[in-house]
Write a structure and sequence with these properties.
The protein has helices at about 5-15, 40-50, 60-65, 70-85, 100-115, 130-135, 155, 165-175, 195-200, 220-225, 240, 250-275; strands at about 15-20, 55-60, 90-95, 120, 140-145, 185, 205-210, 235. It has twelve helices and eight strands.
Length: about 280
């Protein structure tokens, strides 16, 4: 999927919402556990209820790998369902891969060719030869971990390296790699004050932003400092939407929470285009 197709979808749906499909069998409605594939059935119900309100879905692969082959098959069924029913929706494999070149090539093939995701999250610690294999696929994207929303982000990412924080060095260096136009970046919503500095380095790139809602990030603050001419943001919400209810009404409640975010985004977009 091209960046312009993502922008078009944002304009059509008046939304830049990404829904995280982080499925924990201990949290989903108990009646689903009686089904043959409760992971997929949960995802299917969430997708059916929210697909018109979001522009992206992001399964975190750990929540599927934890259940072995059954979990991986559920992930495969989920991405196949999305690609067949909603091919306009941008899909993200939240896998946080990053290894030496030949291993990264195999990871890229797994997510881009076998599963046919549009993008995958990638850790940059091992440098360009661990990331460039993901950038070799046309109309696919690597989403680089830049400045994350977890507490431990301050252990390394914001450390000063002779007058420049590490996360800035990572972003700047990544722009020198092959096919940097296929790069997106993870920037946590809980670090809203950093968005202005990041936009000075990558004014046109899309940012995947976790941390709004449950983790305390502010949508308005993120948009104020992080939005660009093409919007350039994918705001992720996982638990706040998919676990809005653990009863029979879980899908409807998920839709209600997604609708709240979409409506807030619609107001932000209206104000942006009116100014």
């Amino acid at each position: 999927m091209t960046t312009q197709e993502i922008v078009q979808q944002i304009q059509n749906k008046k939304s830049f919402l990404c829904i995280g499909l982080d499925v924990d069998l201990s949290k989903i409605p108990q009646h689903l556990l009686e089904l043959e594939d409760p992971l997929f059935e949960f995802n299917k119900a969430i997708i059916d209820a929210t697909h018109d309100l979001c522009v992206s879905y992001k399964p975190n692969t750990a929540f599927y790998e934890a259940y072995g082959i059954k979990g991986w098959l559920a992930l495969q069924k989920t991405i196949t369902y999305l690609n067949e029913r909603h091919p306009d929706i941008f899909t993200i494999a939240d896998a946080k891969r990053g290894d030496i070149g030949n291993t990264s090539t195999m990871y890229a093939k797994a997510f881009f060719e076998d599963l046919n995701f549009d993008s995958v999250t990638v850790a940059p610690y091992m440098g360009k030869d661990s990331v460039e294999p993901f950038l070799a696929f046309e109309n696919k994207h690597a989403i680089l971990l830049a400045l994350t929303s977890n507490e431990g982000a301050f252990d390394f990412q914001t450390k000063d390296l002779g007058g420049k924080e590490l996360y800035k060095t990572v972003i700047e260096t990544s722009q020198t790699w092959k096919n940097p136009e296929r790069l997106m970046y993870v920037v946590g919503a809980t670090k809203a004050e950093y968005f202005s500095e990041i936009r000075k380095i990558i004014p046109e790139s899309f940012l995947l932003v976790p941390g709004v809602g449950t983790q305390g990030g502010s949508l308005k603050e993120v948009c104020k400092y992080g939005m660009n001419e093409n919007i350039g943001l994918l705001i992720n919400s996982s638990r706040g939407i998919i676990y809005a209810s653990n009863g029979n009404d879980f899908a409807q409640k998920a839709r209600e929470e997604a609708l709240k975010m979409q409506q807030e985004m619609e107001v932000i977009l209206r104000n942006k285009y009116a100014s």
